[in-house]
From TrEMBL:
Domain Glycoside hydrolase family 20 catalytic: 141-387
Protein name: beta-N-acetylhexosaminidase
Molecular function GO labels: hydrolase activity
Native source species: Algoriphagus winogradskyi
Matches recorded under SUPFAM superfamilies: (Trans)glycosidases, beta-N-acetylhexosaminidase-like domain
Superkingdom, natural source: Bacteria
Signal sequence, start to end: 1-17
EC number: 3.2.1.52
């Protein structure tokens, strides 16, 4: 009996040991952003599950402001004399221990984040943690995204989740373009009725700062001031009384209003290191003062920069207008100009800048934004002018510009990469990723661009685009989606680009709200019963694109469906992409049905197709309801009923209506109305004449 008990005990111990043992299977590890150096030499015996518990606790301690403590299996050490940069760390996993070293607590935080990614990959693949040695530090110190909320807000929980996701990518800054989404206390008329209070924004700011993300406000000024100047109370401050676009920079009350807005914004974002003052895309006359637009802008810039300086903040200013006023701006975006040609343009026009060089405030960061051609000699020359004169300069690339339904051009990979590499080569302090809300795609569709930005600003060019996109899939959804079989975003982009104006003749979707009769003047003409085949011939190119798009979308939707089955996390992102694909699919179907009606060989075929066309309205309403259900999980879709729309100087789709569907899908509504009201689909004409 005693012998049986001993065997039983040994058997139980063997079972327990096997349960605690770590699988020896090698995993595929994709850290994002890439470490500076990484070497894997084998597999460790450490339990990924137990290390996961440590990672959770260490993150919680850092967020709570506590000291980071190690365990018997994980050693954390602050080595202040190591020479490591503030955000750098060293991470090693051996057979029996994890060791993380850093010169600062933030360095340890980033080491823990990287360890968490390794653990996540191991658990995803039921693999062993690797024997690994990592030395890591950022290529750029300031790696910030712009969070633009001017046309809509997300639901509160979404922003908190976003801070966690940004922290995982080692993003350490946010420039938050607040406009009227702060309930200003000193100028209460400016804030919209759905604006967050100062306390609500401060709570988010504190949450971000606890994760080493410092939020600084962007309060638009001089131009882009419609959110203020549209109100009757501020009309006397307009530079042009007929336009709500720009302040008069010579009116002292302009600064009273701006400084009140700054004061409230800085209370809402108390950890700010910058005050972004805007200043782009604006010419002012100072009510016909006789001063040049550049002189007027510098008068304004000095006043607002002085305000920031007195509060210990560094002002940031978009640099485009001085360059435009000097006549050198176009050289920045022209890829066909040689360096010699650029030098010639600058030699002729640089005196226009130098004339006012002493008026440029020295405490300001001049932000060189370029969303299409950062690699040109002209862009480098512009940055050089600022640095040559002792000014601070920082670049701004884009993850979203004016794309309507989702970011295109591989989430702007090439532009982000090129500007990051230029910034690294020029030893710039940082780079900003702008995410404009002008046409308001769903924010989930920006996540790949943010990951790309995080990679290049931390690591430089260590991965190809394909490798980086694969790493994004692994980090976002799980290692099961790393294969190209689950790659669909790039395939979806051309269909979305075609969708934008596919149901229009020659007009652009963004300008329809300003047209007198857009249904007649812009929406695609319908085929005529008495001219069979002519519509199809006239729209031959468009129909070919629709057919090609349909084939691609079938593949995309299949890949999304399979991805949703295999995803271990972030399946909501896939749901949003799925809705985008379905919207573009509806447009293709509409075009192909029109061609089917136009080419019908019998009256019966034509009548059957006409019924399908008239059924499109019901199909669209169902699709729109599905999309709004998905989008509405995280997004406040509509503006408040009492919202005052401004003059929409830059034809921002999201600025053209209160209700989400009325601006996002205005074209579809007009098209369906035209189908329902038009008489060109009547049953008449000679079908034998095809």
């Amino acid at each position: 009996m005693r012998l049986f008990s001993i065997f039983s005990l040994l058997f139980t111990l063997m079972i327990l040991a096997s349960c605690r043992s770590t699988p020896k299977k090698e995993g595929s590890y994709m850290i994002l952003p890439s470490p500076t150096s990484l070497e894997i030499t084998g597999v460790s015996s450490l339990s990924a599950t137990e290390i996961q518990e440590f990672v959770k606790q260490a993150k919680a301690d850092f967020i709570a402001g506590k000291s980071l403590a190690g365990t018997s299996e994980v050693s954390l050490s602050l080595e202040t004399t190591s020479g490591l940069k503030p955000e750098a760390y060293i991470l090693e996993i051996t057979e029996e221990q994890v060791e993380i070293k850093a010169a600062t607590k933030v360095g340890l935080w980033y080491g823990v984040i990287t360890l968490g990614q390794l653990v996540q990959d191991a658990l995803d693949q039921d693999a062993a943690l690797p024997l690994i040695s990592i030395n890591d530090e950022p290529a750029l110190n300031y790696r910030a995204i712009q969070l633009d909320v001017k046309h809509h807000l997300e639901k509160k929980d979404y922003y908190y989740e976003l801070m966690d996701r940004l922290a995982e990518l080692k993003i350490n800054g946010i420039i938050l373009e607040i406009e009227d989404k702060l309930a200003f206390e000193k100028q209460p008329k400016v804030g919209s009725s759905d604006a967050w209070s100062i306390a609500e924004w401060k709570k988010l700011s504190d949450y971000a700062m606890a994760r080493n993300i410092r939020i600084s406000p962007l309060v638009q000024g001089l131009g882009h001031a419609s959110f203020i100047l549209k109100h009757d109370e501020y009309k006397d401050l307009r530079d042009d009384p007929a336009s709500d676009w720009a302040f008069n920079p010579l009116d002292d009350r302009t600064y009273e209003v701006q400084f009140d807005l700054y004061s409230d914004a800085l209370e809402a974002f108390p950890h700010a290191q910058y005050l972004h003052v805007g200043g782009d895309e604006v010419h002012t006359t100072g009510r016909e003062s006789g001063k040049s637009p550049l002189e007027l802008q510098l008068i304004w810039l000095n006043r607002v920069s002085e305000y920031a300086d007195k509060r210990g903040l560094t002002p940031i200013f978009w640099d485009d207008m001085p360059l435009k006023n000097a006549g050198v701006y176009n050289s920045i975006f022209n890829r066909n100009l040689s360096e010699a040609q650029v030098d010639s343009i600058w030699t002729a026009n640089e005196p226009n800048l130098n004339k006012y060089v002493d008026m440029f405030p020295k405490n300001c960061v001049y932000m060189r934004w370029n969303y299409s051609a950062p690699e040109t000699p002209g862009n480098n020359r512009a940055m050089q002018w600022f640095t040559d004169h002792g000014f601070q300069v920082m670049g701004a690339t884009a993850g979203q510009t004016r794309w309507n339904l989702m970011p295109l051009e591989e989430s702007n990979t090439a532009n982000i990469r090129d500007f990051a590499l230029i910034s690294i080569d020029n030893k710039a302090d940082g780079l900003l990723l702008t995410l404009w809300d002008d046409d308001s795609p769903h924010f989930e569709l920006y996540q790949r661009g943010i990951a790309i930005f995080a990679e290049y600003t931390w690591s430089g060019k260590k991965r190809s685009s394909e490798e980086l996109h694969a790493a994004f899939r692994q980090r976002s959804f799980g290692s099961g989606l790393v294969s190209e079989d689950f790659s669909f975003i790039n395939d979806l982009e051309p269909s979305v680009a075609f969708w934008k104006n596919a149901l229009l003749e020659k007009a652009d979707r963004n300008i329809l709200k300003g047209m007198g009769n857009p249904m007649q003047d812009a929406v695609l003409a319908l085929p005529e019963a008495n001219a069979p085949g002519q519509w199809t011939e006239r729209n031959k190119s468009k129909l070919e694109k629709a057919q090609a798009s349909e084939l691609v979308l079938d593949s995309v939707l299949y890949k999304i469906s399979e991805s949703k089955k295999a995803a271990l996390r972030n399946s909501y992102t896939l749901e949003v992409y799925e809705q985008v694909a379905k919207v573009t699919q509806f447009t293709n179907k509409s075009l192909l049905l029109l061609a089917e009606w136009d080419l019908a060989k019998t009256a019966e075929e034509r009548e059957a197709t006409k019924e399908k066309l008239l059924n499109l309205e019901g199909e669209w309403k169902k699709q729109l309801a599905e999309l709004e259900t998905v989008y509405g999980k995280t997004r406040e879709l509509n503006k408040p009923d009492d919202y005052i729309l401004d003059q929409d100087h830059h034809v921002h789709l999201a600025n053209q209506a209160i209700k989400f569907s009325d601006w996002q899908f205005y074209v579809e509504d007009l098209f369906l109305q035209k189908l329902k009201e038009g008489n060109s689909l009547e049953m008449k004409g000679d079908l034998d004449n095809k």
